[in-house]
Design goal:
- It is built from 21 helices and eight strands.
- The chain is α/β, with parallel strands linked by helices and 731 residues long.
- A hairpin with a 6-residue loop joins β7 and β8.
- It binds guanosine-5'-diphosphate and magnesium ion (MG).
- Keywords: Coiled coil, Membrane, Transmembrane, Transmembrane helix.
- This is G domain-containing protein.
Length: 731
């Protein structure tokens, strides 16, 4: 493949495919093959439409300058955690800027863990003070009610006595009461005054307490307000904190693919954070596919040390998704992200246990089966502890900050990075993966282009294998069978015409014999005998000439029906075959490709059929042979003259019968000969018509065979193209 620039691969593939299509169009075709050619061209252009759109999408998504590595896997596997850690370890510019912003904000608001704790404590204290004030007020009420209970009850009792007295008193007594107060009235008045004094005292105390309560409430509200403000600036801070891209466990956290750009000396590379592959929405699927198309290498991240799940008919499993998405990648690695929650897990030497190592070997085997030599192996690491070690801008008071403290109390930062496997992963990324990246980019992009070509080769092969080849075979078999039936029908016609002739001859002989015997029995003279024989022969000939055409024509018509049937059966059969094979599903196109061919086209079968029988009846007079055979007949009596009644009458009769029989035998022989000649002249005229029909029956199979040859050629040309891409990609 002679390209000026590696990226010209797409244009080159498209132009090669056009060449294949053009060479299909350029094939010379005659009247019979042109329809097949048109179909082959149509099918190939349909199949290459898919190729074109795939190549265009590659050309749109392809990345040629920056080596691009996608992190691919289920949500929660730890993809974002690994990427976030790498951003910090490799000083990704956007990350550095973000960290700077975080520190600036932290300084501006003076927010620290202790400060926040103090503020929360102050709010708590103020709230307690409020509660205490309310309690004092309640206590005051209680005390007042308790202390005045005896007096209030006594006043109530006195009021009742006064009321009763008013109801029962005499008029005199009532008059008296206007001037002299009763003792209960005096006592009640004293008690009322005392209660009034107590109430005034309580209210004075309550006023003091109320003032205290309002002050406490004000203090509480003020402090809470400051806390809220501090927390709001905290949210601002959180968006700039390390780990902001890490998910919270829900599957829609990462919806789009985000890329992070790194440079390491000469090398430019990007890490792609791809959404979780269990996502079903098209938006997510598109993002995954676009990410994977761009990538030159892929890390399949999983938090299970086990081979990916296989799916079933209803739901594709992870393994099928990997096969579908990652088939065209240059290199694929597995990252086993072991979930570590306790620093103790990192202090015991190796990260992966023996069991996990064994499971990972099984996983490697499965991935190898699916991806072949593109699969590079598995790496074990623990992302979260490494993230904690690398992070320097964590939210004060956060779980991560607490975890960082917990892990760093046991292991230093370099120890954490080593033990978590992250240092080794960083080395892998910077040396193995990114090394020689220009060549790798070319190889990966060529691989992807080749994958598209191979996909189309697969479609062409499938179309040939599942449709045209078996269809051609079956059509051929059916045509052969129908041709055999046509031959058989022609043979049968010949036999039937012969036997019609044969029975005409015996009918003729028998009738003449019966009649002449009756005459002979009348004891006629030899001259009369000869006359009578000639008369009977002429009469029977006339009868045959009258009835034979009808009988013979019936046979010919029967033959016509037979061949009609044979041809119609074949046509129906062929149509069924077209239905069965002519509508196959072509993967990827999302629709069915209609491969139907109109088999009658160009073959005028009804025309041919009409010609067969019409022709026979035109050239053949079915009774002509009788006329020919008897036209020149002379009855040879061959009788001894019966002079003077020398011979007895019985002898004469037997002589006449003998003469009649020998004459009839001669005539029958002549008629047979004439029949043979007549059939011999008529039937061969049928043969070319039957041959023409047979040839017509061959046409559908021949057309399909033509398509098979033509598409087969295109398939070979595509295979050559694929080989060329492969070679160019590994240079
Ligand atoms: N304990 C522990 N948690 C982890 C580890 N790696 C990731 N996580 C947690 O798993 C969750 C999802 O991680 P994330 O990196 O967003 O996964 P992604 O969906 O693959 O991008 C987050 O809560 C992480 O803190 C790990 O090694 N140990
Ligand atoms: Mg994520």
């Amino acid at each position: 493949m002679d390209l000026q620039l590696p990226k010209d691969i797409y244009i080159s593939v498209l132009s090669e495919v056009n060449t294949v299509l053009q060479s299909l169009k350029d094939l010379s075709a005659d009247k019979d093959t042109s329809q097949a050619k048109d179909r082959a061209v149509q099918i190939f252009s349909e199949l290459s439409k898919e190729l074109r759109s795939n190549i265009e999408s590659l050309s749109k998504n392809a990345e040629w300058d920056t080596f691009t590595i996608a992190f691919y896997g289920e949500t929660n596997a730890g993809k974002s955690t690994i990427i976030e850690t790498m951003r910090m370890l490799l000083s990704e510019p956007v990350k550095l800027a973000q960290q700077q912003e975080f520190k600036d904000l932290e300084k501006k608001y003076g927010i620290s863990a202790e400060h926040l704790a103090q503020m929360r404590h102050a709010v708590e204290q103020a709230s307690q003070a409020c509660t205490a004030c309310q309690a004092s007020l309640d206590a005051l009420d209680d005390k007042f009610l308790r202390q005045t209970r005896v007096q209030r009850e006594r006043v109530e009792a006195l009021r009742q006595q006064i009321a009763e007295h008013k109801e029962t008193a005499s008029v005199w007594q009532k008059m008296l009461d206007l001037f002299i107060k009763r003792p209960e009235q005096k006592e009640a008045a004293i008690l009322d005054r005392e209660l009034q004094d107590a109430e005034t005292g309580k209210q004075q105390e309550a006023a003091v307490l109320g003032q205290q309560q309002r002050a406490a409430q004000q203090a509480y509200e003020g402090r809470e307000q400051s806390l809220k403000e501090a927390e709001a600036s905290l949210a601002l801070l959180a968006s700039r904190a390390d780990g902001a891209i890490i998910g919270n466990g829900t599957s829609d956290f990462t919806l789009d693919t985000t890329s992070y750009h790194f440079s390491n000396g000469e090398q430019q590379f990007a890490l792609l954070d791809v959404p979780g592959i269990e996502g079903k929405e098209t938006r997510v699927m598109d993002a995954i596919l676009a990410g994977v198309q761009k990538a030159h290498a892929v890390f399949y991240v999983t938090n299970k040390a086990a081979a990916p799940q296989k799916g079933d008919e209803r739901q594709p499993g992870t393994l099928e998704k990997i096969k579908q998405h990652l088939g065209a990648q240059t290199e694929v690695w597995t990252v086993y992200n072991k979930r570590v929650t306790n620093p103790i897990q990192l202090t015991s030497g190796r990260l992966a246990s023996d069991d996990e190592m064994a499971s990972l070997q099984d996983l490697d085997r499965r991935m190898n089966e699916v991806l072949g030599e593109r699969y590079r192996g598995a790496v074990a690491l623990s992302a979260y502890p490494a993230f904690l070690a690398a992070a320097s801008c964590l939210m004060p008071d956060s779980q991560s900050a607490a975890n960082k403290a917990k892990f760093q109390a046991k292991l230093s930062q370099p120890e954490l990075l080593d033990r978590s496997g992250m240092s080794a992963f960083r080395e892998l990324l910077l040396t193995d993966l990114v090394k020689d990246f220009k060549r790798k980019i070319t190889r990966s992009n060529y691989n992807k282009a080749n994958q598209v070509v191979c996909g189309t080769i697969g479609e062409v092969s499938k179309t040939l294998r599942e449709s045209f080849k078996p269809l051609g075979k079956e059509l051929k078999k059916d045509a052969e069978q129908a041709q055999l039936q046509l031959d058989t029908a022609l043979d049968a016609l010949k036999t039937r015409l012969e036997s019609q002739g044969e029975s005409a001859i015996s009918r003729f002989s028998n009738n003449v014999r019966k009649n002449i015997y009756a005459e002979i029995d009348k004891d006629i003279s030899n001259d009369d005998f000869k006359d009578a024989l000639e008369r009977f022969i002429a009469r029977e000939q006339a009868k045959l000439v009258a009835e034979l055409p009808g009988l013979m024509q019936k046979e010919v018509e029967k033959f016509q029906e037979q061949i009609d049937d044979i041809v119609k059966r074949f046509q129906a059969f062929a149509a069924d075959l077209m239905d069965a094979y002519g509508n196959i599903r072509v993967t990827g196109l999302g629709s069915r490709l209609d491969l139907k061919i109109d088999i009658d086209n160009g073959i005028n079968i009804p025309g041919l059929l009409g010609a067969v029988v019409g022709g026979v009846l035109m050239i053949w007079n079915p009774a002509g042979w009788v006329v020919l055979a008897l036209g020149a007949i002379t009855v040879l009596a061959g009788l001894v003259k019966s002079v003077m009644g020398f011979f007895s009458s019985d002898y004469k009769k037997s002589q006449q019968r003998k003469a009649a029989n020998s004459n009839l035998d001669d005539i029958a022989d002549k008629m047979r000969e004439s029949l043979r000649d007549s059939l011999g002249a008529a039937l061969p005229q049928l043969e070319p018509k039957i041959e023409a029909l047979k040839a017509a029956l061959d046409k559908p199979a021949a057309q399909i065979a033509g398509i098979v040859t033509m598409l087969g050629k295109s398939e070979r040309q595509l295979k050559n193209l694929s080989k060329k891409i492969e070679t160019a990609g590994t240079l």
